Amino acid sequence: MTRIPDASIIHSRLRLRQLRLMLALQELGSLRRAAEHIGMTQPAATKMLHEAEGLLGVELFERLSRGMRPTPFGDTVIYYARMVFAELSGMREELVALESGNLGRVTVGAIPALASGLLTRTIATLKKSHPRLSMSIQVDTSDVLVQALLQDQLDLVLGRIPPGARAEELLFDSLGEEALCVIAGAQNPLAQATQLTWGELQNMTWVLQQQPSPMRTIINQVFHNARVDVPSSIVETTSIMTLLSLIQQTDMLGVTPLSVVNEYPGRHLLAILPINFEPRLPPFGLITRRHRIMSSAMQAFINTVKAEHQLQITAHMPTT
Length: 320
What we know:
The protein is α/β, with parallel strands linked by helices. The protein has helices at residues 7-13, 16-28, 31-37, 42-56, 72-99, 112-129, 142-150, 198-201, 214-225, 240-249, 258-263, 296-315, and strands at residues 61-63, 68-70, 105-110, 134-139, 156-159, 170-176, 180-185, 206-208, 234-236, 253-257, 270-272, 284-289.
């Protein structure tokens, strides 16, 4: 039979100051220094830690000859303690924003392929309906963004769940899939080709995302399936604008979602090469933490993303 009490007992008896002590103890490694850090005596801190361990029914910290370190149980409590205080900080920011008449603040991560299209339209629409909404945007690959989300550095991600992510801690609301294409500058001699093979493109210089992004993984797999070595001349970037600029000004090649090309104002400066690209990226969508409470700002952003995406789908539907 487990020694761990019911959640209702933990909710009613575990105190925020006990969690603060554990965070300080994990950071400083000394009960005396941790006690000083949160403004209490060492005997009081010792008693508080014993009470927490007694409540939870497990040993949270291992007593060493020099200092203390968390046990596996302690590591788990510390992980959730950080989440608790991150949520409280978010609550405070939202209260301050509401007090001043703002909707609040939302920190968003977006993959490059969506940053110049869906994300841009979402921001423009939101600023019209909620002009005082504060937004912070980070553009990067899905693996980087999801890790930041899991560390509470982002509120939500507009992207994909990468391989190896802790999927059980995430909620994924799929918006759709994207086809990929190989692009070159309109001036590139290959732009006039009617059919190409991966072997013919292997010795070209490519502009690709870094490892281990989902797009790069797929591109590597395409060359592998064609029994061709991955190109040795590669420029790595997560910036869509850098990719498009290099493609236009040089004879380099790149891979990008077809939607990026179709929405690019300089579409006439690009050419989609005639080569079969069957694999698709995993679905993209909205990614949030499973147990995180939605703020008003997060909900407004999510609703607007979905509305803008639906408008885009409707605009590209064939008319009868």
